[in-house]
Specification:
By secondary structure, the protein is of the alpha+beta class. Strands 7-6-3-4-5-2-1-8 form an eight-stranded antiparallel β-sheet. It is elongated, with a radius of gyration of 28 Å.
Length: 173
């Protein structure tokens, strides 16, 4: 009678087939863990109480802009390289203002532009290139001391003109 040689375990296919699922799950788990560690979730804040107080302070800024009867008409250039803002206010305004285009999901893509008075109450500034376009932006106009602000939501598909008049922000589509 002839004996068949016993092969070592690694020469059989069944151990390998049984190891595929745990090895694949381990690799995917390590990839997810790396992604969770490396990427930043800009939407999470550590101190909710402090952030809540800051939100109330920001609402005071909106009310101050209301008391100033501040209205601004923003016009973006066709190439999105510059912006012009015509401002009407019952109180004198400083020579420089800040226009912030807030990306709806990633704060790393926000664009902050310093506007300088060109004549009367018209301010102009150069925009940084938009590296990550969005369907809508939150546009804020404020003084450099951050005592007042006007803000609204802007959909680029609706045109280059935008009015900041104190109307309330609505939830995004």
């Amino acid at each position: 009678m002839q004996e068949t040689p016993i092969l070592p375990w690694y020469k059989h296919r069944w151990p390998w087939l049984l190891m595929i699922a745990p090895v694949a799950a381990t690799i995917v788990g390590i990839a997810f863990l790396r992604t969770a560690i490396v990427t930043d979730d800009g939407m999470v804040v550590d101190d909710y109480y402090k952030r809540g107080k800051e939100i109330n302070m920001e609402l005071k800024r909106d009310k101050l802009a209301d008391s100033m009867n501040l209205v601004a008409n923003v016009e973006f250039a066709a190439d999105m390289r510059s912006v012009s803002v015509a401002v009407k206010s019952s109180t004198p305004l400083p020579d420089t203002l800040a226009l912030t285009m807030v990306h709806p999901t990633q704060d790393d893509y926000d664009i902050i532009t310093v506007l300088t008075r060109s004549h009367d109450n018209v301010y102009q500034g150069a925009l940084a290139p938009i590296t990550h376009p969005a369907r809508h932006w939150y546009v804020q106009l404020e003084d450099t001391a951050k005592t007042w602000r006007r803000q609204t939501e802007w959909h680029p598909s609706n045109g280059r003109l935008l009015k900041l008049d104190g109307s309330k922000l609505a939830p995004a589509d």
